[in-house]
Design a protein that fits this description.
- This is Glycine betaine/L-proline ABC transporter, ATPase subunit.
- InterPro entries: AAA+_ATPase, ABC_transporter-like_ATP-bd, ABC_transporter-like_CS, CBS_dom, CBS_dom_sf, P-loop_NTPase.
- Belongs to the ABC transporter superfamily.
- The structure is a single chain.
- This protein has 17 helices and 16 strands.
- With 380 residues, it is an alpha/beta fold.
- The strands form 4 sheets. It has a 6-stranded mixed β-sheet with strand order 6-7-8-3-9-10, with helices on both faces.
- β15 and β16 form a beta hairpin.
- It is elongated and about 85 Å long.
- The chain binds adenosine-5'-triphosphate.
- Adenosine-5'-triphosphate binds next to β2 and α1.
Amino acid sequence: MITYDSVSKIYGSGPGAVTALDNVSFHIEKGEVVVFLGPSGCGKTTTLRLTNRLDSITRGTITIGGRDINEQDPVRLRQSMGYVIQEIGLFPNKTIAQNIAVVPRMLGWSKDKISERTDELLRMVQLDPALYRDRYPAELSGGQQQRIGVARGLAADPEILLMDEPFGAIDPINREQIQDEFLKVQEKLKKTIAFVSHDIHEAIKMGDKIALFSEGRLIQYDTPEMILTQPKNKFVADFVGSDRALKVLGLMRVRDAMNPVPLNIIQGDTLAPAAIGFLEEKKRRYGVVVDGGKPVGFVSLKDLKFETGPVRDVATPFPVMAQGRQPLRDALSMMLMHDLILLCVIDGNGDFIGTVSYQNIQRAILDVYSDETEDRDVTR
Ligand SMILES: Nc1ncnc2c1ncn2[C@@H]1O[C@H](COP(=O)(O)OP(=O)(O)OP(=O)(O)O)[C@@H](O)[C@H]1O
């Protein structure tokens, strides 16, 4: 969709010239979120501003859908892309609805269509249109204003969205929430997004790919997983941090690491003496009791010793359970917090789908880090 071909940007000339971007080439696929990441001054914002011709390219070309942007009218080009920036840039004397409608009005949309679209966008960013459309920006919190910035960027339903640290000014808790909401919206809309960030956590979470820059050069362009597990050089390894194995846990899902067929499953109606025999045969001290497909709790050999009835009556309920789609990091955190050696995993209906142990987690990380060509032991 967007192709950067040997793009350089030099500000000024002579001895004071600054090379902001140095011979950068990469391609953003349609529907993909690419995060431009790197330390301050590495060229992230410049790359974004060249894309919508807010700045001009010194050398090289940028094409969108195969068309050179320099051959397009800059105003049209800008209108065809959403642009969301950290400073938000809402007009203080316009209402929220008027702020969102800026581009659709320029494009000559009818009043009814604009009004409908405004309400739709407000709902999309979790703000009730009845409450917010006629308010002024100063009457909104920072996080709410930022949501309006996102809504405005999406107003004319552009295929491409350029976002420059869009959630940078929001406190960490609200930022997590707005990132989650944005990812949900993106799952539906499938926009092509270039997203500037200096936060590795945000890049891992938001990006289908990460473009990591340093001093105007593109150092590595890869999926978050590859950036974390196969850093191309010391700069990348240092930038992602020595805790990158832990960051990988944030990328992986519980489902990817769990054991879907643990040996110690006991059906709820099994009588205690039979359950003891079963656990002894499997050489397990604990069993996971499942009844009608739903997890019930743990039983230990000790618990069962003097019992005669079905295990479902003596099982100790799980203090917490993980959902298969949760990040593996959450599962590890639950196990540490609740002092569990095994975590039960359920699907969206609450049905049992597997268990996770510390060993499963370790194995999953090792699998990601091991060379693709090595033989792997896939039995868990
Ligand atoms: N208008 C300008 N005139 C001169 N130099 C500029 C201009 N804009 C950017 N630069 C320089 O170009 C380099 C890249 O800047 P850019 O804003 O792209 O960095 P960035 O990676 O977005 O940084 P930050 O995270 O701090 O926003 C920097 O050295 C910056 O000082």
